[in-house]
Design brief:
single chain, mainly alpha, globular
């Protein structure tokens, strides 16, 4: 999938999207993504539909709610460098019109990004769109910010703590 043709951009909460991406990468997610699965791993029930929609717009899930080849490629990355490259490739395709106007998101001001997202609908979600774009760029290593501010995994169950410890070891 290239960029959305109906001027719609993903507008889910950045913590929810990054949590799903990181969990899937660590193989801590079912093969199929149902709304119940998202809620079970800590996505608030009120955010499940928005998160599912955003994952589809990001070309991470098919309409059948299964991971795309791109998402599988992200999961198969063995190094942080490969992960950043795979995520950057995905972002540059999904957000192609944004990158045409802002080739280096690290140098883009908030005003510039809000201006770029002005064409996207719905207008009341544009701040979320910008925040998610910035968070995904940070996750891909395109921006040197936010990664320490975004919790790696939702929830506090023993399994979540185990996954968080594994994530923290991989970051060191």
């Amino acid at each position: 999938m290239a960029h959305p043709t109906d001027a719609t951009a993903p507008a889910a909460g950045m913590v929810n999207i990054l949590s799903v991406i990181r969990r899937y990468r660590l193989r801590d997610f079912p093969r199929r993504f149902s709304p119940d699965d998202l809620h079970h791993v800590g996505i608030p029930f009120i955010d499940v539909d928005r998160t599912m929609h955003a994952l589809k717009l990001l070309d991470l899930l098919t309409p059948n709610e299964t991971p795309t080849e791109r998402f599988q490629k992200i999961q198969d990355c063995e190094s942080e460098e490969a992960y950043h490259e795979a995520l950057e490739e995905l972002l540059r395709d999904v957000y192609e019109p944004v990158f045409e106007m802002v080739p280096d998101p690290a140098k883009a001001s908030d005003i510039k990004l809000r201006s770029v997202f002005r064409e996207y609908e719905p207008p009341e979600e544009r701040d979320r769109m910008v925040a998610l774009f910035r968070a995904l760029c940070a996750e891909a290593g395109l921006i040197d910010q936010a990664s320490g501010l975004i919790p790696p995994i939702l929830g506090t169950s023993s399994r979540n703590r185990q996954v968080m410890q594994q994530y923290q070891k991989s970051e060191s």
